[in-house]
Amino acid sequence: MQTIQANGYSVLFGEKEYETLNDFIATNNYSSLFILVDSHTNELCLLRFLSFLATDKTIEIIEIESGETEKNISTCVEIWSVLTELGADRKTLMLNIGGGVITDIGGFVASTFKRGIDFINIPTTLLAMVDASIGGKNGVDLGNLKNQIGVINVPKTVLIDTEYLSTLPQNEMRSGLAEMLKHGLIFDANYWAQFKDLSQTDFADFDSLIHRSIEIKNEIVMQDPTENGIRKALNFGHTLGHAIESYFLENETKKTLLHGEAIAAGMVLESYISWQKGLLTQEEYNEIKKTINAIFETILFEENDLPPIFDLLIHDKKNEYGKIQFALLDGIGKIKINQEVDNELIIKSFADYKK
After folding, report:
1. Do 158 and 174 have their domain in common?
2. What are the tens digits of pLDDT across the range 300-337?
3. Which NCBIfam families match (predicted)?
4. Which of 58, 46, 49, 43 is nearest to 18 (CA)?
5. In principle, which of 17, 59, 149, 301 could form an S-S bond with 12, CB 3.0–4.6 Å?
6. Average pLDDT for residues 35-45, to the nearest whole number?
């Protein structure tokens, strides 16, 4: 699969690219290597990675617990402390092996330790491959608020090895699929069409679908690295999706949602809003809702769930001057950013979602 050139780094594909990775490490003469994993990737993925890693440099492994609840500043402090205790310096390289939590927090830790050390992402989940590890966003949650603290700083490279996907349960694969669906909806109607009937999708060629998804995100990020304009398109489904995800994370009576599960609901809700604002046809909206609902279970919302979800909306990072900003579909394959939506229409979107 062809290498994708991003802003200041490359996205490498396939087993043979471990040689490229080894050459990069040798050429840059790093003083030591620190590998960040969580408890799952330590058990299921690290051995495969180490079997391809060829270096005489000192290697240290840092393991954290798995899950979104670990993506906080306290975990960063623990990692910074370990780096310090084990003698990491400005010429240390950090290798982040895991899903979106690991690439987000690993990139943030590396970007801030001693004012910045190099890091490389090796994503092991579908979500991290097509979204979290690409584009240079690194950070942590603030309480239950998603990604409130962070920096935009690109890795030295990203290595995509889809063999790691064999370690994932079905719900984690679906979670990543949500971002792939989003990429089609906002940018490429032909790509979206490949997912309209999953029974007709050739998953033998799934690597090419992953490759195209990364291409789409990269094309958008290349135009707007710091999210002042078109990069906001990538937030389609995330304004409501992140609020839903945060609410279900903090509420002990609710089952915690995977990121993609919340974003799938957010895409249906925001597609309804797009339709009601005259940006989508009813047929397009019905197609989107039918396709997403065929893949993801409908989330049960009670009437008393909406006020706290609305309260969380104000913390969305796209908001400006206290106003909630949405990225809405302008037909399938196109997007309109900086769209204001009133609460009455959001309430209607939840009512329609339940149908």
Report:
1. no
2. 999 899 999 999 998 775 666 567 899 999 999 999 99
3. aroB
4. 49
5. 17
6. 98
Q: Which amino acid would we find at residue 278?
A: G
Compute the half-sphere exposure of residue 16: CA atoms within 13 Å on the CB side of its CA: 3
DSSP 320: B
Distance between CA atoms of residues 91 and 98, nearest Å: 22
By DSSP bridging, strand 145-152 and strand 137-142 are antiparallel
Convert 267-291 into a string of H (helix), E (strand) and C (coil).
HHHHHHHHHHCCCCCHHHHHHHHHH
Q: Are residues 156 and 185 in the same domain?
A: no
Return the number of other C-beta atoms located less than 10 Å from residue 51's C-beta. 9
Tokens 């400005």 correspond to what residue?
90
Residue 128 corresponds to which tokens in the numbers above?
């991290």
Specify the number of domains making up the chain. 2
Identify the CA nearest to 309 among candidates 270, 339, 350, 276: 350
Going 146 to 322 to 179 to 252, the CA torsion angle's sign is positive
Nearest to 295 by CA among 167, 224, 201: 201
Predicted TM-score (pTM) of this structure: 0.94
Which of residues 167, 201, 223 is at a domain's end? 167
Same domain, 174 and 151: no
Q: What's 211-231 look like in SS3?
A: HHHHHHHHHHHHHCCCCCCHH
Which tokens go with 23? Answer: 């050459």
What is the spatial distance between Cα 245 and Cα 259, in angstroms, rounded to a whole number? 7
pLDDT tens-digit readout, 154-190? 999 999 999 999 999 999 999 999 999 999 999 999 9
Q: Which of 321, 320, 326, 322 is nearest to 340 (CA)?
A: 326
Domain boundary among 135, 167, 199: 167
